[in-house]
């Protein structure tokens, strides 16, 4: 249930709230622009990994419960909360540290009520890492680099279609200094913000292709595997004919 306007802390109070180091950069701005009211005004909110590297950090909003590895009943994977019990789950600069992102995203999503929100914030590969591939120069615990597209790919791999809708996806480069070279740590904000809203799934399922198409697809894959394994030993003319057959099978 959303808090009333009188119960919501003013933007100025949130601006001075000692949340995690990255969230602290724009929490006041998010409050002033309505982000907090839209997505973090419920009475039941979890902030996953809220401490980060700061032992004295507090959860993102006053009514949120901070979840870290020492939270009672939390084993680092499974949240000790019932299905559909939370208005929002918030996670800032945490997902990139988790090996099994599918399990994490699905578990965070599990505890959200229909209509509630999942907010995930991760560093942007080209703003923070400023390099093409792992390892991270600045944090050796980063398991993956993120772009908006790769973050959405992980969402689509982790959650069933039509159980959510994307409500917000943006690069946050507020105060970012583009003059700083890759050899030096970035300054300002260098993150991707994503917000999903949980849905009650429709009563209908996605259409499947006709049975004949599915059978042909299996035959095509079998033919492609055969060509990949034995193609070099086949006469060129036979290889060309089989390749043409594979391309024509729908």
Q: Which structural traits does this protein have?
A:
single chain; 250 residues; alpha/beta; 6-stranded mixed β-sheet; 9 helices; globular
Strand order of the largest sheet: 2-1-3-4-6-5
Distance between the termini: 50 Å
**Count of alpha/pi helices:** 9
C-alpha geometry: globular
Q: Hey, roughly how much beta strand do the residues contain? A: 15-25%
The count of DSSP E runs of length 2 or more, i.e. the number of strands, is: 6
Largest sheet: 6 strands, mixed
Order of helices and strands: HHHHEEEHEHHEEHH
**Any idea what the radius of gyration is?**
23 Å
Q: Helix/strand-derived class?
A: alpha/beta
Contiguous runs where pLDDT drops below 50 for at least 5 residues: none
Task: Report the mean per-residue pLDDT as an integer.
Answer: 90
Helix content: 25-40%
In short:
The protein has 250 residues and is of the alpha/beta class. It contains 9 helices and 6 strands. Strand 3, helix 5 (101-110) and strand 4 form a beta-alpha-beta unit.
Please provide a written account of the structure:
The chain has helices at 11-15, 21-24, 27-32, 35-39, 101-110, 125-129, 148-158, 211-230, 236-248, and strands spanning 45-48, 64-67, 86-92, 112-123, 164-172, 191-198. It has 250 residues and is an alpha/beta fold. Helix 5 links the parallel strand 3 and strand 4 (112-123). Helix 5 crosses helix 7 and helix 8 packs antiparallel against helix 9.
């Amino acid at each position: 249930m959303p808090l009333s306007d009188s119960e919501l802390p003013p933007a100025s109070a949130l601006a001075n709230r000692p949340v995690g180091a990255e969230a602290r950069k724009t929490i006041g701005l998010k409050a002033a622009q309505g982000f907090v009211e839209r997505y973090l005004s419920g009475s039941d909110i979890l902030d996953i990994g809220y401490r980060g590297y700061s032992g004295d950090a507090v959860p993102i909003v006053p009514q949120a419960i901070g979840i870290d590895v020492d939270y009672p009943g939390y084993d680092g994977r499974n949240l000790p909360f019932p299905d559909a019990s939370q208005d929002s789950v918030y996670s800032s600069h945490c997902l990139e540290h988790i090996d099994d992102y599918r399990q994490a995203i699905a578990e965070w999503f599990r505890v959200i009520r229909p209509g509630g929100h999942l907010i995930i914030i991760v560093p942007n590969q080209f703003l923070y890492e400023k390099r093409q591939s792992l390892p991270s120069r600045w944090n050796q615990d980063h398991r993956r680099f993120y772009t908006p597209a790769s973050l959405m790919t992980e969402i689509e791999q982790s959650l069933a279609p039509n159980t959510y809708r994307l409500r917000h996806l943006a690069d946050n480069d507020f105060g970012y200094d583009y003059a700083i070279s890759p050899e030096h740590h970035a300054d300002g904000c260098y993150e991707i913000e994503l917000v999903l809203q949980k849905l009650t799934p429709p009563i209908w399922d996605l259409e499947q292709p006709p049975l004949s198409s599915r059978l042909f697809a299996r035959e095509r894959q079998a033919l492609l595997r055969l060509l990949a394994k034995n193609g070099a030993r086949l006469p060129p003319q036979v290889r060309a004919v089989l390749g043409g057959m594979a391309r024509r099978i729908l």
